[in-house]
Write a structure and sequence with these properties.
binds cytidine-5'-triphosphate; Spore Coat Polysaccharide Biosynthesis Protein SpsA, Chain A; alpha/beta; 2-C-methyl-D-erythritol 4-phosphate cytidylyltransferase activity; transferase; 33% helix; nucleotidyltransferase; binds the ligand C[C@](O)(CO)[C@H](O)COP(=O)(O)O; 24% strand; Nucleotide-diphossugar_trans; 227 residues
């Protein structure tokens, strides 16, 4: 069975701020992206790794790989102006027509290997597998008139990556014109009228987005080292 992982890291990290995009910032002594690629490689070295970066960053990334002696084999693909376009470019680089592809945010280095494994397993039989976690807090829905209403949280899930698919289906799904509702790959898939399958993600697989997330990431890594 062919297996690939598209690691999307073609963004600018505006919410993080600072001169260096968040995917290259060091946590635990090396760039965030290297942690993410390692999780997949250490799970199964035969997974084809496709790293989507802003086209202008290729030489910077290659310098980082030399600096950190990063040897994990991967293919570089230039990203687009949106996450949708970056994923689509990654999908174009896959030449085989049968198999599975996990699409994962480069800035989610704390994904657990058993979640990735389960995502490939479920997608093989059902077409898709989307990692989600339950909410711990109460939630309220806001309306335009400034009011808010209680919502039953058991009917909601936070959506993470990996989002894993049969390659023929997700390639077909990405042939559409991009719309605003495409906030992730699941929404593109279900735009075809196909139901997505949900799997349990791991709560610590958060998306590094703002500066305090980096501090939390450092904390998680130091805790792991101490174990
Ligand atoms: N044109 C884009 C935009 C985003 N991404 C990737 O999609 C993932 C999730 O996006 P997000 O956290 O929003 O990253 P950024 O777009 O970089 O962040 P920001 O919105 O703060 O600029 C990240 O790994 C990001 O690099 C991408 O590959 N190509
Ligand atoms: C794909 C994603 O990480 C799932 O939670 C999320 O939708 C990305 O959103 P962003 O707007 O790019 O931060």
């Amino acid at each position: 069975m062919n297996k690939a992982a598209i690691i999307v890291a073609g963004g600018k990290g505006k919410r993080m701020g600072g001169p260096i995009a968040k995917q290259y910032l060091p946590i635990g002594g090396k760039p965030v992206l290297m942690h993410t690629l390692e999780v997949f490689y250490q799970l199964d070295a035969s997974i084809e790794l496709i790293l989507v970066l802003p086209g202008d960053d290729f030489s910077y990334w290659k310098e980082l790989c030399q600096e950190y002696d990063f040897q994990i084999p991967h293919q570089l693909v230039a990203g687009g102006n949106s996450r949708f376009q970056s994923v689509r470019n990654g999908l174009h680089s896959i030449t085989w027509t049968e198999g599975l592809v996990a699409i994962h945010d480069g800035v989610r280095p704390f994904v657990r290997q058993d979640v990735i494994e389960e995502s490939y397993r479920v997608a093989e039989t059902s077409g898709s597998a989307i990692a989600v976690v339950a909410l711990k807090d109460s939630i309220r829905k806001l309306s335009d008139d400034g009011k808010s209403t209680y919502q039953e949280r058991q009917y909601f899930r936070l959506v993470q990556t990996p989002q894993t698919f049969q390659i023929d289906k997700i390639k077909k799904a990405f042939q559409v014109t991009e719309i605003q509702q495409f906030t992730d790959d699941a929404t593109v898939y279900e735009h075809q009228g196909w139901q997505v399958s949900l799997i349990a993600g791991n709560p610590e697989n958060f998306k590094i987005t703002t500066p305090e997330d980096l501090e939390y990431g450092e904390f998680l890594l130091s805790k792991r080292k101490a174990q």
